[in-house]
């Protein structure tokens, strides 16, 4: 019962937050819906034994990335109405129909098998908790090369953001 | 009596998490398709990346391997880099044409 509650309550909040993200009109509300989804996901991660990932999710996503989003929303203004003219005729109808079709296929397959999907691999008996030391011992031994590559990516992204901002300022001064 | 009680008890298995992840991904995809505001589209990309992260964590828990959780870190870094560069581009576009709607963005047409 506790298991079910620990899954269902964050799960409902995740879907609610996601729906707020795509349907709210005010960009600040969208950002808050995203915060709701991300924090509820962190709770699910804890129930899946990934404690350190949950912590990082809170810090990086709900903290840093959302701050960046809110900063940009405040910067470019929230009072502009979104232009809702459809460039492609029947775009919304088409995509909603396709998605409903896909979801109903998935639901049909699920119901056919009695909600028991027989995953390819059986549930492992080996349970562990994703503590920082365990993750570090994996990341700095067998995953050390991807780790280095991803750090280069971060440096490149930082440089790119700086370059974009600098270019803009130079053009402004010339005008 | 005890048998009946066991049948009522619902066990949360990995399928449930995977289904939730699929729903989250679909919502993100739907938002990506129906919204015009570039910022909201970025948020929808975040939703989809988070759905994938949930799949990774579920697989890691299901298989008893730590590698899934490592992969989540890489996705996290890619998402952060993408947000940093993307938002910088959105701001510079907005300064130029006073709108964040993607339908207006035809200047990079070849």
Molecular structure report:
The complex is a heterodimer of chains A (175) and B (110). Chain A is an all-alpha fold. Chain A has a domain at 2-82 and 124-142: Up-down Bundle (Four Helix Bundle (Hemerythrin (Met), subunit A)). Chain A has helices spanning 2-23, 27-47, 51-76, 91-112, 132-139, 144-174. The longest helix of chain A is centred in the last third of the chain and has 31 residues, at 144-174. Chain A is extended. The model of chain A has no long low-confidence stretch (mean pLDDT 84). Chain B is mainly α. Helix content of chain B is 77%, strand content 0%. Chain B is built from 4 helices and no strands. Chain B has helices at residues 2-8, 14-34, 38-63, 67-97. Chain B is elongated, with a radius of gyration of 20 Å. At the A-B interface, helix 1, helix 2, helix 3, helix 4 and helix 5 of A face helix 2, helix 3 and helix 4 of B.
Give a nutshell description of this structure:
Chain A is mainly alpha-helical and 175 residues long. Chain A has 6 helices and no strands.
What value does the average pLDDT of chain B take?
A: 83
User: Overall pLDDT of chain A, averaged?
Assistant: 84
What are the secondary-structure elements of chain A, in order, as H or E? HHHHHH
Poorly predicted residue ranges of chain A: none
- Unreliable stretches of chain B, pLDDT < 50, 5 or more residues? none
Biggest sheet architecture of chain A = none
Tell me how many strands of chain A there are: 0
Helix share, percent of chain A: over 70%
Q: What string gives the helices and strands of chain B in order?
A: HHHH
The oligomeric state is heterodimer
Total DSSP helices of chain B = 4
The helix content of chain B, as a percent range, equals over 70%
Q: Please name the CATH architecture of the domain at 2-82 and 124-142 in chain A.
A: Up-down Bundle
């Amino acid at each position: 019962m506790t298991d079910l509650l620990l899954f269902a309550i964050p799960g409902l909040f995740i879907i609610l937050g996601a729906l707020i993200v795509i349907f709210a009109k005010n960009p600040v509300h969208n950002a808050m819906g995203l915060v709701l989804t991300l924090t509820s996901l962190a709770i699910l991660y804890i129930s899946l034994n990934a404690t350190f990932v949950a912590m990082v999710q809170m810090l990086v996503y709900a903290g840093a990335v959302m701050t960046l989003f809110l900063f940009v929303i405040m910067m470019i203004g929230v009072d502009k109405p979104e232009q809702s003219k459809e460039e492609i005729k029947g775009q919304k109808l088409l995509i909603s129909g396709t998605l409903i079709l896909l979801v109903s296929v998935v639901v049909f397959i699920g119901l056919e098998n009695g909600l028991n999907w027989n995953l390819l691999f059986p549930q492992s008996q080996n349970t562990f908790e994703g503590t920082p030391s365990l993750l570090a011992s994996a990341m700095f031994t067998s995953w050390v090369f991807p780790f280095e590559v991803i750090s280069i990516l971060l440096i490149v992204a930082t440089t790119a953001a700086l370059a974009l901002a600098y270019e803009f300022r130079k053009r402004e001064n010339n005008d | 009596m005890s048998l009946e009680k066991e049948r009522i008890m619902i066990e949360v298995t990995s399928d449930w998490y995977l289904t939730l992840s699929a729903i989250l991904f679909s919502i993100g995809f739907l938002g990506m398709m129906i919204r015009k505001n570039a910022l909201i589209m970025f948020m929808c990309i975040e939703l989809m990346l988070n759905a994938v992260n949930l799949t990774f964590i579920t697989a890691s828990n299901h298989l008893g391997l730590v590698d899934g959780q490592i992969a989540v870190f890489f996705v996290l870094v890619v998402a952060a880099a993408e947000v940093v560069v993307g938002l910088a581009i959105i701001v510079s576009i907005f300064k130029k044409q006073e709108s964040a709607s993607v339908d207006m963005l035809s200047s990079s047409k070849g």
